Amino acid sequence: SKQMEGAGESHSSLVGHKCPVCDNGLKLPVVLQCGHSVCKECLPSEHLCPTCGQHSESIGTATTADPADTESSFVAAMTASPTGEPVSHQVDEEEEARRKAAEEEAVQRQAAEAAAAAEEELKRTDPVGYILARARSCTDSVRFDGYDLTDQCAVALAGWLATNETITVLDLSKNRIGVEGARAFAAALAQNHTITMIYFEKNQIGDEGARAFAAALPQNSTLTDLYLDENQIGDEGAR
Question: Which of 110, 169, 181, 191 is the right S-S partner for 141, CB 3.0 to 4.6 Å?
Fold first, then answer.
């Protein structure tokens, strides 16, 4: 092929060869990827070979002093990137970077999966401990809507809320909290002085739970909104 013929020519000494651009002897010759040579200062900026028109993504320099040097330079040219760094080295570095990135991603994924598994295990074996741990990590609002909480969890959470001084919003809607849980939160309201909103819809507190909340309201000066919709509250509890 033409490329192979050009490559063969470049293996010989460049002494006496002329530049195809300036038609003078090669000065600081540059070996193109196609195998042809040109003066360094005559090399087009787009790296198009003036002899065959082929674009060179890699170039190398050669010396006219020693044929062996010329051959080494040609070999370097065939394995060099546009920046002059050997392509094999660049490939190795890129592969190593990809490998490290993949390893780091795998480690992060495993850590996330382990944390999720530990959380699920705690939720299953110690639901009260799980709820309290989540609540303590909150700063201004606690949201456990739809967590299927029972009175046991509600009582523990109410005990924590009673002395908390940062939480302003509490969302316990869509759970299974009954009268016992409602009484615990009513008692907590008498001690808490930061809570402003409580969402308690769609639980099971009934008339008795509603009366417990009603009795606690005069003892709390910060609560502005209490939502008790869909709690099986009849006329007796609504009074």
Answer: 169
